[in-house]
Design brief:
The structure is a homodimer. Chain A is of the alpha/beta class. Chain A has one domain (2-7, 37-87, 109-304): UDP-N-acetylmuramoyl-L-alanine:D-glutamate ligase (3-Layer(aba) Sandwich). In chain A, 37% of the residues lie in helices and 27% in strands. In chain A, the strands form three sheets. The first copy, chain A, has a six-stranded parallel sheet, sandwiched between helices. In chain A, strands 4-2-7-8 form a four-stranded mixed sheet. Chain A has a four-stranded antiparallel sheet with strand order 12-13-14-15, with helices on both faces. In chain A, β9, α4 (147-156) and β10 (162-165) form a beta-alpha-beta unit. The longest helix of chain A is centred in the last third of the chain and has 16 residues, at 264-279. Chain A binds chain B through residues 15, 17, 20-31, 62-63, 65-66, 69, 91, 93, 95, 98, 100-107, and chain B through 15, 17, 20-31, 62-63, 65-66, 69, 91, 93, 95, 98, 100-107.
Chain lengths: 313, 313
């Protein structure tokens, strides 16, 4: 079983409009709502790939109840810890005419020390029977800034490897506990390394503790920097569509490759293919299986030379 | 007790943003949510005026539960009939920099025949002990188009007068049952009378069945056309602010005047003063008591000559 952790879960609401007229009254044509947050999206992808997965995290209030209900309806096994605060919503307003989206992100609830302690108790119980754990997304207010370090350490006590998808302080605090894989975004890489070269950024994050770093190289696909070598996987062409959830699909593929101990070039190919197949699907957590199968045949992987070590002259 | 009916209740959610950037991701600074819909706003104003009031209508799902909870927290007595569908939300996105608002109106739930029958049962019980009933707002899908006619007739069976604040078909179907007061908007008046003169429009709606018609005359205040005469009440100046809820405050004043059998010039003065005091308050259902008291002194009322009868030559 692959455990996914979503500490700042959300109810993702989509409003479909003919045309969004800012600063006016807009009648919404259709409303859709489903449970969201990076970890939950990863579990959806894993489930669609036929893998056993459990969702955990924090949820509360009436919106938390809606998250519970939707996860159950989607057939996803979940064990969310109930909090007093109200789970946040995200509202995506889709302008059908322009084909683009305005997103409103509500702030999340504040987590108390008791609630965090309660979560750790549930987490220990779940991670003990997991093959791997995915820690993904932002930290809600009230959770310690080293939350991901704590969760990686507790997973290791059960010999369970952790995949970390976060940024900023939450990511950096997690590095000290040597996560098996991290998937930082391009902005994070350049902040850490002071360079726009993703390979240099990945090397800096490995030096800071990550066992393997997988990063998007934009239209050039993805790179993986590991203790077994570095690789780049390229898609045949760039796909148009909804980029939300593409990173979560890549994390699902990388975690599955980790559990199956697949060779890195295979893991990276799967990550690029699933990520592109997620771009081709309208909702985060979904992917287009036809695009996925086709791309698996068409992606090329090359081995990269080790990055030059920066020397101080 | 004054009963208010909100058949298409809502949870009104407000997102406060520094600046709304359409077609981008926006982090919301603060979120507020409260029960909304015209009847509920009328009850809030009546409660603030020290009047006993009961809210009824239809609500369901988790959003319906949030409506229940907020009404209780606000100290409003409510007896909403539970439906299977999910109560709608409205999302008002307030751009603090521009000082204006983008509104997203979700479609409401579909009401079944059994749910409507259940509502009529509750309504009969409540209206029997009311001094007046306010029927306000749009009709949800599934409710008969003559819903307001049915409710006015049932109120009359208990000798309870009805105030109707609706438009389009819902208003026109209600006219046949001779509501005590209607408060159509300017657009409705001109559609009915084919004239931009509000007095001509009011006369046409009285001819169609309404006992009294009160209408906004824009910056010129409000007019009332009744079987006792016609009047216009003017505020000293136009107030800037939030016009949402101004009509609901006027309906609250008119209903209270009806119950107290106040002379029409007094009722109209109260309607203009409360309406302007509602414009000065940030949320629908609230009003600024200082503005209210000040305007009561400053509003002027004039008697209007009877409108010329249209004759066919």
């Amino acid at each position: 079983m692959i455990l996914t952790v979503t500490l700042n879960a959300a109810l993702d609401v989509t409003h479909h409009l003919d045309r969004l007229r800012p600063h006016e009254s807009n009648r919404v044509g259709a409303v859709a709502a489903r449970a969201g947050g990076k970890g939950i999206n990863v579990s959806r992808v894993l489930q669609a790939l036929g893998q056993e997965t459990v969702v955990t995290g924090l949820a509360g209030g009436l919106t938390g109840a809606a998250v519970h209900r939707e996860l159950t309806a989607a057939g996803l096994t979940h064990d969310l810890v109930t909090i007093d605060g109200e789970t946040r919503r995200t509202v995506a307003v889709v302008d059908e005419k322009l084909g683009d989206t305005t997103i409103l992100l509500e702030p999340g609830p504040v987590i108390t020390a008791d609630e965090w302690a309660g979560f750790l108790h549930t987490y220990d119980k779940l991670v003990a029977r997991a093959a791997a754990v995915v820690l993904a997304g932002s930290l809600p207010v009230g959770v310690p800034t080293n939350a991901y370090a704590v969760l990686i350490r507790r997973a290791r006590a059960h010999h369970v490897p952790a995949v970390l998808d976060a940024d900023g302080k939450a990511l950096r605090a997690g590095l000290s506990e040597a996560p098996a894989i991290i998937k930082p975004n391009a902005a994070e890489l350049s902040v850490v390394s002071g360079s726009s070269d993703p390979q240099a950024g990945a090397a800096a994050l490995r030096a800071a503790g990550a066992q393997a770093v997988v990063a998007s190289a934009g239209p050039d696909g993805m790179i993986a920097c590991t203790d077994q070598g570095s690789w780049r996987a390229r898609p045949p062409q760039r796909l148009a569509g909804n980029p939300t959830g593409a990173g979560d699909a890549a994390v699902a593929a990388l975690t599955l490759g980790l559990v199956q101990d697949a060779p890195w070039p295979v893991r990276l190919t799967e990550a690029v293919a699933l990520s592109a197949a997620a771009v081709a699907a309208p909702l985060a957590g979904d992917f287009d299986p036809t695009v996925h199968r086709r791309l698996l045949e068409e992606i090329t992987v090359e081995s990269l030379p080790a990055p030059k070590t920066q020397t101080t002259s």
